[in-house]
Amino acid sequence: MHIRTITQALAIGGLLLGATALTTPAFAQDGKTITGGFDVGPGGFPKNFNPLAATGGFTWLNTYFEPLVIYSAELNAIEGALATDYTVSEDMLTYTFNLAEETWHDGEAFTAADVKFTLDLIRDAASGSVFTGRLGKVANVEAPDDRTVVVTLSEADGGLLSVLAQVMILPEHALASVAPESIATSTWWSTTPIGTGPFKFTKYVTDQYVELAADEDYRGGAPKVDRLINRYFENPAAAVAALRAGEIQFTYVEPEDAATFAGNEAFRVIEGDSYVVNYIGFNQKVDLWKDVRVRQAFMYAIDRAAIVESLYGGAAKLANCGYVAPHLVPDGLNDYAYDPEKAKALLDEAGWAEINGDKPITWLTYYGSPQAANVMAAVQAMLAQVGVNVVPRVVDVPTYNGTVYQENNPDWNEFPLIYAGLQNGPNPAGINVGLNKSQLPPAGANIMRIEFDDLSAAFDAAIGETDASQVDARWQDVCKVMNEQLPWATMWVANRYGVASADLVDFVWTPAPAGGPFAAHPELWDIK
């Protein structure tokens, strides 16, 4: 299928989707206020207030919570946040963090006990934290004094600091009385949360917006603006309409929307690598996908290059494993170039007619944007040409998570296939949680229940490598196994876009996986 054919087919079928923007009255506030659609689109996580359970939305959460360490805005280094500095032992088993002097938003002192409380809470599976499995190698957390935390590992974990960069530290004095099994459902997160960040939570108006107020005592200096407001929108198009109308000063946008802002001096378009690999996931609890030839057929049946050119405007890189960064991709990979005849032959060899034939297969996703709908429609048409009948089903993030994370699902056919994305950088260990057999729910995010021994061994070797000169080679081994065994049908890594009003001063946004967090320094944001 050629590029023009994709676009024409979708347009004729009425599948080039748009959305009607809904606007609400502008906020009347005294003082300076920055309002944004901070949780719109990939990287956002609308209406989630619990950072322990967050799989996105850290752009916003990090304005009032903070981690021990954090990625730079360029995503190329990890620096201190609540930890002023840290040291790592030569064997990479002991991490020592020296803590900043700070107070919680209610005036209580922040201490090492809060860090120990947070990490111990996460390590308790009853907390429902998505980070439980990712901290599985933590053997002990000690707080020898108020300003020092020592984390000891049972074995080396090259991804530890990257994980800790997403772990928001919580107040022991406010949450210690809440049983771990009740943490996830506590109303505290959306009513009276306290953090250490530059802004303090003031109110949540259900399904409309969250408002924060400046913390005048923040250690980085009093914020330049009085308030931050995060508005909720049903879709990116509604947020774009609000941006154009001057109701908000920032939002994530789809690539085609980003192009419409080019050259407009009233706005600044921000573009960057998403560090997220999009993939079609095969639920290994479903017998349809046991034969690797069926998984290979998916790759050959989909004209990924045409979709990238037509629907992403060329702003994506094809992924033949979980990575696209050159230093992580070895030579000699199968590029799975578009070949529908080969796809048909592989399906015939695997006995697809007897396995499933043209019976419909539910294809679940949480991607609700027009662009994602067009991508899935194109893939659906291509798979149909080789005799595979997939039916997209779009749900919101809470419904999706509630479905795929069930530990003992009574009906795995509820999600035999998914279309999703997972962080593949800046630390390559990001996708370990979705592919290693040690990361099956509830401990981790291996929602496709992939238990491939060679793949898990490759991940373990890469994460445990302590020789810096060998690290890239270990991750190349992971890439090679993924390319051969296809636990996922990897699609691409796309660029992402945000648009900010030119009235914003010193505003920093990075299209980071899961929304970061990263060192955006919201205390320095200002508005003309």
Average pLDDT number: 92
CATH topology assignment of the largest domain: D-Maltodextrin-Binding Protein, domain 2
CATH architecture of the largest domain: 3-Layer(aba) Sandwich
Structural category:
alpha+beta
Can you identify the CATH class of the largest domain?
Alpha Beta
What is the approximate shape? globular
State the total count of DSSP E strands: 19
Going by CATH, what is the homologous superfamily of the largest domain?
Answer: Periplasmic binding protein-like II
Query: Which regions are unreliable across 5 or more consecutive residues at pLDDT < 50?
Result: 1-28
Beta-strand residue percentage: 15-25%
Distance between the termini: 49 Å
Please give the share of residues in helix. 25-40%
Total count of domains: 2
InterPro entries: Peptide/Ni-bd, SBP_5, SBP_5_dom
Family: Belongs to the bacterial solute-binding protein 5 family.
Pfam family, one: SBP_bac_5
Domain Solute-binding protein family: 78-426
What do you see in this structure?
This is Oligopeptide-binding protein AppA. Residues 1-28 form the signal peptide. With 528 residues, the chain is of the alpha+beta class. It has two domains: 33-249 and 503-527, D-Maltodextrin-Binding Protein, domain 2; 273-495, Dipeptide-binding Protein, Domain 3 (Dipeptide-binding Protein, domain 3). Helix content is 28%, strand content 21%. The chain has 18 helices and 19 strands. It has helices at 3-12, 58-61, 112-123, 160-164, 172-175, 180-183, 188-191, 236-244, 255-261, 292-301, 304-311, 340-350, 352-355, 370-385, 397-404, 432-435, 453-464, 471-485, and strands at 33-37, 69-71, 78-80, 83-88, 94-99, 138-145, 148-153, 199-205, 209-214, 227-231, 250-253, 267-282, 316-318, 361-365, 390-394, 417-423, 488-501, 504-505, 526-527. The strands form four sheets. Strands 1, 8, 9, 10, 11, 12, 13, 14, 15, 16 and 17 form an eleven-stranded mixed sheet that branches. Strands 4-5-7-6 form a four-stranded antiparallel sheet, with helices on one face. Strand 14 (361-365), helix 14 and strand 15 form a beta-alpha-beta unit. It is globular. 49% of the residues are buried. Residues 1-28 have low confidence and may be disordered.
